[in-house]
Specification:
Layout lengths: L3 E7 L5 H11 L18 E3 L1 E2 L8 H14 L8 H5 L2 E2 L8 E7 L15
Parallel strand pairs: 3-4
Antiparallel strand pairs: 1-5, 2-5
Length: about 120
């Protein structure tokens, strides 16, 4: 896990309720809000998915795990599961309306900035 990093961003179109939540949760005394436009071609920059109802995991993944266990007596392990789990959160966090960029360091591979947009 020492080689996996992520950055979280919130959609800037916030309701009054969301706006109040962010100020109370992340800047109760003082703080600033930065608005950035992020354009990424990286497939590991995407919108977070939250549980539909508290305590119910993603139904497709849950169903696959159950069917493989019941039909074949094996445990289903999805390739790239650590990456997949980085983009799914509990219902409790859905107010954050988050986008997340995930980066894993690979020996010899370096992150390259393609450009910066002035605002």
């Amino acid at each position: 896990m020492k080689i996996i990093f992520y950055a979280s961003f919130t959609d800037s179109n916030l309701t009054t309720e969301q706006e109040e939540y962010f100020w109370k949760a992340f800047a109760p005394v003082d703080g600033v809000r930065l608005k950035l436009e992020v354009i990424a071609s990286n497939s590991n920059f995407r919108k977070m998915v939250y549980e539909k109802t508290k305590g119910n995991p993603l139904s497709l993944l849950n169903d696959l795990t159950r069917v493989v266990r019941e039909s074949y007596g094996r445990e289903f392990v999805l390739s790239g599961i650590s990456r997949l789990c980085a983009f799914y959160l509990a219902k409790d966090f859905d107010v954050e309306n988050e986008y997340r960029a995930l980066y894993r360091y690979w020996e010899g591979l370096h992150l390259k900035v393609m450009g910066i947009i002035d605002m």
